[in-house]
Design goal:
Number of domains of chain B: 1
Distance between the termini of chain A: 22 Å
Structural class of chain B: alpha+beta
Structural class of chain A: mainly alpha
Shape of chain B: elongated
Oligomer: heterodimer
Number of helices of chain A: 4
Strand content of chain B: 15-25%
Number of strands of chain B: 7
Number of domains of chain A: 1
Shape of chain A: elongated
Helix content of chain B: 25-40%
Radius of gyration of chain B: 17 Å
Largest interface: A-B, 27 and 18 residues
CATH architecture of chain A: Up-down Bundle
CATH topology of chain A: Four Helix Bundle (Hemerythrin (Met), subunit A)
Order of helices and strands of chain B: HEEEEEEEHH
Number of strands of chain A: 0
Order of helices and strands of chain A: HHHH
CATH class of chain A: Mainly Alpha
Strand content of chain A: under 5%
Largest sheet of chain A: none
């Protein structure tokens, strides 16, 4: 009986640690997303591409690490996949601009900015969801 | 001569994508790339719509739109193009037009413009 209780407590403790680490992962991704957006605004496409790579890796880690977690909704998982795809497109554009002789067109700039806003919104929204899940778990 | 491939699974997937896109039920979203749209599905798959089939040696896009289905590892699970029996270039272009409408909420904007134009007509009468 004690062993069963201990096992349950250990499982719950592990779940709490994982929940916290998801919120932390998303929080650091959120900060990186803000950095990428600033670099795009400043026209620093080579740095933006590098930071997009880092953020893409973070998004991929979140997707794989929490793929089997049933407490995370399909909508949230779709959001992370969307962020990953947005970053892939952003990287492709940034790479093309680094080697290009001409500066980006106003349309390209606005599309990149819109994509950065989308990526930031996703991480902000998902961070809030992760924190809410933690709060709900803490309150039983 | 263009090769036509028989791929019933890809055709069935395309027919659903076409139907749901026209019905505005697929969550297509814009990306930083011009006319490239993505739609995440079931938390593990991604539909990607490109406005071309391939790029020529100068990098210029050529051919009708294409759709790919990938998993979270970017493995290409299916590729839908006009070389598949039953998938026409016209239908692929229809998906692109309606995906654009969904991604940019164009229907609402077109309705707003229509209302304004019709209102102007009524005022003139």
């Amino acid at each position: 009986m004690f062993a069963k209780g201990a096992s349950k407590a250990a499982k719950e403790a592990r779940k709490a640690v994982l929940s916290n680490s998801l919120a932390e992962e998303i929080n650091s991704a959120q900060k990186l997303a803000a950095e990428v957006a600033n670099l795009i605004d400043l026209g620093e496409y080579d740095l933006a591409r590098l930071r997009s790579n880092d953020l893409h890796d973070r998004a991929l880690t979140i997707i794989h690490r929490f793929a089997a977690d049933t407490s995370i909704s399909t909508a949230s998982k779709n959001n992370f996949l969307n962020a990953k795809s947005q970053l892939e497109a952003l990287r492709a554009i940034a790479s093309r601009l680094i080697g290009a002789a001409a500066p980006p067109t106003p349309r390209q700039i606005s599309q990149m900015q819109a994509s950065c806003t989308k990526i930031r919104d996703i991480f902000v929204e998902e961070h809030a969801s992760a924190m809410r899940r933690n709060d709900e778990a803490d309150n039983g | 001569m263009r090769q036509i491939m028989d791929d019933p699974k890809a055709l069935a997937l395309f027919q659903e994508i076409l139907r749901k896109t026209i019905a505005k039920k697929l969550p297509w979203q814009p990306t930083a790339e011009d006319d490239k749209f993505v739609a995440p599905m079931l938390g593990k798959y991604m539909l990607t719509l490109l406005p071309y089939t391939s790029r020529d040696s100068w990098g210029a896009p050529e051919g009708p739109p294409t759709i790919t289905l990938t998993d979270a590892n970017n493995n290409n699970l299916a590729e839908i193009h006009s070389g598949i029996e039953g998938v026409s270039a016209q239908d692929l272009r229809t998906v692109l037009v309606f995906a654009r409408r969904i991604a940019f909420n164009a229907d609402e904007k077109i309705d707003e413009l229509l209302q304004e134009l019709q209102r102007e007509d009524e005022q003139r009468r």
